[in-house]
Amino acid sequence: MAEEEEVIEAETATAVHAAAPLSPSSASKSKKRRIDSASRAEFDVELKSVLDWMDRTESTLQLLVSDNPQEPFTVEEQRVLIQDTESSVRSHQMDVQRLLTLGQTILTELKIAGEPQDSLIIVIKGLEERWENINDKLTETQTKVDLNYEMKKFNSELTALQELMASYEKYISNAETVEEDAPEITGQLDQCKIKMKAMQAHQDRIEALRIFSEQIVRQYEGADSVKSDFEDLLKKWNAVSDKYDERKRQLAEALDKVPPRTFLEATAIMNKWLHDIDDAIKKQTVQVAAETAMTSQLETYKDLTKEMQDHTTGFEYINRTGRDLISKSTAERGDELRSDLQALNSLWTEVSNVIEQRQAKLEKNISQVQEMKNQMDGLVHWMDEMDVFLHAPDPSSGDTATLEAQLQESNGVEEDIRTLQANVKNINSTWKSLLSEAEPTFREQVGSEISDLNARWEQVASLASQQNTRLETKLSKSQKVYDHIEALNIWLGEIKESLAHKDYAVENPEDLLEKAKKFKSLKAEVDEKQKEIEDISEEANTMIAQAPSGSLQELARLLMKLTALWSDVLARVERYCKLFQTAKLKWTDMKDLMETEGLYLKTLEKKVRKTSSASSDAEEISEELNDVETYLAEHSTENKRHIQTLATYLIDNCVLVDRVRREHDDFLKRYEKLESDARNKIQRLEKAIQQAQTIERQMLDMSQWMVDVSQLLQNRLDADMLAGDVPQENETLQLEFKQQEELLEELEGNVQDYKQQGRIEASTRLEQQTQLLKKHFAEVLVKFRKFQRPADFEPKMTHVWRELGHIQGTVHLVEVPSDDLQLIQQRHENCMKFYKTMSELKPEVETVLKTGRQIVERKQVDFPESLGKQLDAIKQLYNELGAQIKQNKADLEKALKLSKKIKKELSLVCEFVSSTNGVLDEREDTVESAKAEEELSFLKSTQEEVVKRESALTSVHDLIQQLQSLSEEVDVSESRDQAHKLSQELHDLAARMARRKTKLQEETFSIEARFVDFQTQIMKIKEWLGRAETIVGAHSRLSDSQQRLTPHRETIKTMQKQMYDMRSQVDEIRDQAIELMSKSDSYSRMVEPELSHINQRWEELAQKIRERATSVPPESPTVLERRTITQVAFTPSKSSSSSPSASPSPSLSIGGSPTTRAPKVVGGEVFDEALGKLHTHMDFFEPQIATDGQVTTADYRRGLEETAKYIEEKSNALIKEINNVTEEGEKLLGAAETSRDPVTHARVSNKLQELKIRWLSIQKDIEMKKLDLATLLPVYNSFTEQLASFQMWLVSAEERAAAVTDSGLELMLIKVVSHPGYPVLILVKEPPFSLGTGVYSYT
């Protein structure tokens, strides 16, 4: 590349020197007419200026890409230089184009003048090539500078991460040992977690660096080392992270195996607390004393019990943690822990039991003392009341009501004494049980009270007993008279009630005997009571006479009632006694007469029943008839009339009415019935004689008929004559057989009648005779059935056998052969023929089977079993063939459907594949890019259809499998091969559409990318148009004097130049728009308005700039004179230009001197000052929050809540300050763009980018710090509150401890240790925050 540039430079210089004779100084030497030297002079001057600029630009670019410059530029300086060079190249583009245009004009003039053009052509060509090389080199250098800048950023971040990783690796390499104690392991684990959290916090940087490296590799060639460097970093980073994970796992396992500090501290505290309680309890004793003293002591033990309950959670934690540690620790360490744990459990159990026992004993003593006191107070109060009652006077004798009331009260007193005696015993026993454990003072006081109570109790019990005895004696004497009279009145009243209001009708003989005996004994009882009644009446009269007048009216009333009842009862008893004695005699007589008549009726009944077991012989029946008639004629009716008379008497006197009437009626009914049965039996015996004679005659006739018919049938069978040959004779025989069957049925009916009548001998004899007849009749009937068998049965059965045999031999020809539709149809037609034959043969088979079954059943052949087997074989063969043909028919029909469906589905799929391929071929040849969306929609719908066809092919495979399953002999290879072929074609079609869809999607994505690029460029053009419109608008508002100034005149020229530079971009945008509109209708709708709007604004701006250029006033004379002088000073002389070795001087550019720089941008110092202050504030704030999210010592000193507020306020202040600096920077950037100051623009842009990156890092630290504060604040507040509460409680405890004696200090110490805030006091000595590198982390 360098050699080509040197050749181009040499050719250009040669061309320039060769063109020197064309100057006006040599015009006189030429014979031909020379062209005007003004254009050529202008061309030479501008060419010299451009070449000088190219030399400087190339040296600058060469310096930037040089590998070993003497004073290397920094990356930032390289970027600034390359941006300046790029601006310079852009600014000289119009100069070069104008120079080339001028050269082409001169070439045209030379061509017209016929002068040589070669040297100028070489110059122009060299200039064009050199311009292209500068642009190419600028692009290459800019790419390299950008790569250097990106590589610097990448290497800086890579180096920072490597150093960070080295620190982490150094830490993990030095931290290899694991401590043995829990606190040290916990500290190591916390440090490990902090380091891991810190590494995780930098994971975003790793990910950002990865994305950055991929971007560099993707954008720049020769940057492959970036990828390898990042992979090495990532590999080492992951290795260090894995080491930390392994370290964390080892520490966690070690921490699980050692007792934690909290467990050890809790165990020590629990041991000390239990020993303190045990010592305090052992120094105290439990005695029976006053209730208040024992209650106070009980409250103390209840407090201890509550404290034990409060410590249950800690105790359970110790046991649970201890068991876990035992299971995880080594054997030696586990035995040690188990021993300590068992000792602690034993001490806990011992202390708990002692407290529980003493508390129970105190509660029992208090309860017993309270109960004893209550019982003693109740007894004293009750004895005070009894003193009044026991000394009251007794009631007078005879006053039973008063005596009863007084005695009831006395009995109540006795009951109370018996009840309270248990209380007295309980009091004494309770006192005896408490006496041994009571205090001396309490023992003496209570003992005296109990002795007084016992003495008074004995006195009261004695007085109550004496009073009760007196009252019982008086009441017993008075009550005895009343009870005796009352008992006699009740006894007489009951007798009167039973005699007056009850019906003394006798229901049964026992009742009659009982009533007779009852009234006899009642009369004797009444006679005995007469003396007793007289004595009690006399005694009652004496009591009434001795009592005060009017005091015993109740007794007098009872005595009068006794006298009246006695007179009434005595009269009734005497009357009923006489009645029942007479009825008893009458009943006895009646029973004797009925018994005599019962013997007669029994004998008569035997004679009547005797006929049921007689034989069927006529002579025996005649003898029985004569015996019955004689017995009836010899009996008398006198006893019958006497029985009726006695029954009437008993019924009239209501004695055994129902029984007498029933037995009398039964007697009469039986008497009349037996006489009637005897007479009826006489009639039946007469009829039986006639019936026996008739049966004997019928049996003889039937025997003779069977002999005759048997001989006739045998003759016909011997002659091979059947019923069909002699039908009239068959009808006659059928009628005769039916008559003989009816006769046999009649004889069997007579046998049953005899059995029902009890004529066993007659029925047995007749039954034997009937069986003989039936046997002979059955033999004759067999011959008759043989005579009746059908004559056409055997030919029909032979025909059926032949047809079934034919079908059986050819039935295999109707099975499913293959998947060939025609062959299956042919087999189906054959099957239908067999099916029709079997249907036609069915009635004949049924007829043969039915007829054959009848022949077998009737035994119309010699060997019916053989015929039955033949019929079974016919039936089985017919059923098997029918089932086989039916199954074959169903299989063939199913095969037809399956085959048709397979052919249909395969043809549809084949047609679909063929048509779709054709459509795709047509679309691939004719489809336009604008129809890409329509094409994608078509492909999507077609792919859905392909999925449906694939499912259809799947169903086809299932159908083929179903067809195959019909028979093992079915050949489906053709359909299966066709289905597989179509599956492959369908798969190829799907792949083709997928490729087509992917291609269209790529084209769509490409169009979208172009559209995005188009929108981006449109935005840039709009932005430039907005700035240009603003500048032109501002220029139009200037006055004429201001517009004459050079800067304002140069503004319009600059805008014209920029617009000329932008035209290529606008043309490119137009080309992109036209391409997008041709690609897609949707993009056409979006692009066309934008393009129209840009074109309109562009034309309007161009028109305004042209108007402003023509309307600008001429320069002032002073400025014009100064510019002319400057131009003359720089215009080369003719003599100097004629020298071949002289080089052309630089000419002025359109915008003025090339050495003139753009005016300096105003406001840079203010921006730098504000940015410096902002960085100072950020330098002060960043160390306070850049702690990897951890809380520092300064944060705790300030207070966590105050720290959170401070961070919030400081971050808000920084945000406002950043916004202000950003606004200043954006204003400065706008001013730099307006004044075309690339150095200022690049500097400010870089500083704003650095500020943005730094603020993002600070924001991340702020969020991490806020999160940790929010997590830690509730725990820290709870800790401080518990600490303050416990400190306050300690102050009050100290005050109380000053007033407590030495004996109570131990219990006080127990309460201190058991207070919920005591663990906080321990934690204050070693706070729950592990110190690490000036940072507190909560554990």
From TrEMBL:
InterPro entries the record matches: Spectrin/alpha-actinin, Spectrin_repeat
Region (Disordered): 1-36, 1129-1160
SMART domains: SPEC
Keywords carried by this UniProt record: Coiled coil, Repeat
Gene3D superfamilies in alphabetical order: 1.20.58.60
Compositional bias segments (type: Low complexity): 10-28, 1132-1154
Coiled-coil positions: 124-181, 512-546, 618-698, 730-757, 949-992
One Pfam family linked to the record: Spectrin
CDD domains reported in the protein's UniProt record: SPEC
Top-rank taxon: Eukaryota
Protein name: Dystrophin
